[in-house]
């Protein structure tokens, strides 16, 4: 069933899209029904790039040349202005994308101890770290739904949290974790080469999900890309104490070097993605393949005195790219808020698959088609500690226990001026909406059996080697 909201205003924000016909662009819902009825379902490729913030891509206004291939792809696609992740870390965010449930419901987050605690304390203290929560196999997921609808489902991931042991293979016919060399993450060229082989051999229609790690700390792109995007001059010195150990590049205290290595990681992924797209064109599969490119979360570079991710709910961690080439959707930019949790119901509709029974997201295909508009919002949480609700114009971050921040995004995109004590009525209203969304998620989660398993020693060692866990 679809989540139903009460009278707090969340209905209008999340599900009450106002019907405003904008004319017939030649991509009506009738044509979608016709395609599905005639089994002209598109292949589907979902690319998620770990830690990729939207504002480091050219299509979103970035000035450095990090993304020529993604920018070219965007000219054939619809670009969502404000796509929001449901959590500032991988496991919870991708689980929300695949299930259309908020983290408070699916409760698939990280090891038993939140990464934020491990990073703050430098150890697990008295908490065990040998167990992890697992995405429940009882939950409907996007790949399960697509597989039931006749899609051949495949996944390639370079993230050691997105693995079979932790429940992320649920619904995939083929699933592979691609390990990098010498304790590093596998680079995008390796994964996208494997992706090309997979789709070449796959029956149609197919669904392929690829998760890349080139923009994830510790920012270690291959040498050619480092040379293409060197650190800007003069240096931007920062206090060494503000650089987390798992992010540190040698002894450097130049923020420009960290930004340059991150940008070179974007370029690394971009070039591999461009080659993959060229392969689809060469095989004449481009026209019949829907492609969605997004990220699990962003990355902080001291915008709010924090580096890395998993430590705040500011937009540098929550606002991610969402670029989609979909049949029935004309290219262009859409000024709207879309959640990662919206992708499951949206892509289910596009492919004729069964949408989730319980959904905290919504089908935004009519919004992307410019057939509807409205006042949508997005929800996010930081491991039971802080929560956020975000519209195009406003954002509230709250502990729901007294502390809160309110930002006017029209005037303050950097979230620097807290207006919670100025716009009191607005903050109160948004906080009520936020509390209601969280309460619904918790209630829905009570029907889901929470599962945890021992983490195999080899996986624990892998997570430590990559900086995910304290050694």
Description:
The chain is α/β, with parallel strands linked by helices and 471 residues long. The protein has one domain: 3-Layer(aba) Sandwich (Alkaline Phosphatase, subunit A). It has helices at residues 10-15, 29-37, 68-74, 90-99, 103-106, 115-121, 142-148, 188-201, 223-228, 255-282, 315-318, 343-351, 365-368, 424-445, 457-465, and strands at 43-49, 78-84, 131-134, 152-157, 174-177, 206-212, 289-294, 300-301, 307-308, 319-320, 322-325, 332-339, 378-382, 386-390, 394-398, 404-408, 451-454. Strands 1, 2, 4, 5, 6, 7, 10, 11 and 12 form a nine-stranded mixed sheet that branches. Strands 13-14-15-16 form a four-stranded antiparallel sheet, with helices on one face. A two-stranded antiparallel ribbon has the order 3-17. β8 (300-301) and β9 (307-308) form a beta hairpin. The longest helix is centred in the middle third of the chain and has 28 residues, at 255-282. It is globular and about 55 Å long. Residues 1-30 and 113-126 have low confidence and may be disordered.
List keywords for this structure.
471 residues, alpha/beta, Alkaline Phosphatase, subunit A, nine-stranded mixed beta sheet, four-stranded antiparallel beta sheet, 15 helices, 31% helix, globular, disordered N terminus
Low-confidence stretches: 1-30, 113-126
The CATH architecture comes to 3-Layer(aba) Sandwich
Category from helices, strands and their pairing: alpha/beta
Q: CATH superfamily membership, which one?
A: Alkaline Phosphatase, subunit A
Mean pLDDT figure: 87
How many structural domains are formed by the residues?
Answer: 1
């Amino acid at each position: 069933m679809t989540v139903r909201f009460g009278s707090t205003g969340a209905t209008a924000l999340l599900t009450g899209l106002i019907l405003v016909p904008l004319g017939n662009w030649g991509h009506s819902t009738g044509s979608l029904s016709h395609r599905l009825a005639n089994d002209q379902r598109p292949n589907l490729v979902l690319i998620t790039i770990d830690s990729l913030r939207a504002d480091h891509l050219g299509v979103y206004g970035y000035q450095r040349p990090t993304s020529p291939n993604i920018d070219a792809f965007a000219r054939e696609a619809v670009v969502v202005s404000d796509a929001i992740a449901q959590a500032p870390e991988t496991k919870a965010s991708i689980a929300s994308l695949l299930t259309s449930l908020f983290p408070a419901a699916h409760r698939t987050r990280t090891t038993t101890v939140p990464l934020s605690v491990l990073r703050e304390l430098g150890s697990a203290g008295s908490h065990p770290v040998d167990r992890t929560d697992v995405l429940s196999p009882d939950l409907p997921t996007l790949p399960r739904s697509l597989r039931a609808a006749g899609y051949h489902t495949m996944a390639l991931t370079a993230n050691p949290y997105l693995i079979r042991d932790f429940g992320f293979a649920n619904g995939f016919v083929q699933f592979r974790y691609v390990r990098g060399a010498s304790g590093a993450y596998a680079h995008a060229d390796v994964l996208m080469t494997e992706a090309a082989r997979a789709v070449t051999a796959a029956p149609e229609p197919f669904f392929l999900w690829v998760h890349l790690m080139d923009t994830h700390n510790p920012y270690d792109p291959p040498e050619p890309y480092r040379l293409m995007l060197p650190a800007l001059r003069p240096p931007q010195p920062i206090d060494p104490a503000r650089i987390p150990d798992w992010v540190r590049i040698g002894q450097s205290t130049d923020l420009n070097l960290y930004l340059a290595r991150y940008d070179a990681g974007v370029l690394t992924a971009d070039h591999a993605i461009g080659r993959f797209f060229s392969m689809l064109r060469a095989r004449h599969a481009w026209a019949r393949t829907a492609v969605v490119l997004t990220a699990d979360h962003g990355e902080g570079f001291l915008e709010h005195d924090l580096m890395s991710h998993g430590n705040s709910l500011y937009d540098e961690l929550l606002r991610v790219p969402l670029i989609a080439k979909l049949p029935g959707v004309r290219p262009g930019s859409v000024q709207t808020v879309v959640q990662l949790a919206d992708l499951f119901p949206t892509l289910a509709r596009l492919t004729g698959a069964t949408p989730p029974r319980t959904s905290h997201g919504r089908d935004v295909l009519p919004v992307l088609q410019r057939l509807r508009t409205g006042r949508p919002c997005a929800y996010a949480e930081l491991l039971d500690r802080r929560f956020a609700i975000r519209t195009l114009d406003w954002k509230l971050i709250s502990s729901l226990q007294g502390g809160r921040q309110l930002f006017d995004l029209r005037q303050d995109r950097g979230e620097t001026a807290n207006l919670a004590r100025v716009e009191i009525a607005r903050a109160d209203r948004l906080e009520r909406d936020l509390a209601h969304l969280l309460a619904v998620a918790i209630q829905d989660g009570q029907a889901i059996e929470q599962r945890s398993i021992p983490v195999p020693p080899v996986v624990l060692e892998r997570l430590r080697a990559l900086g995910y866990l304290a050694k």
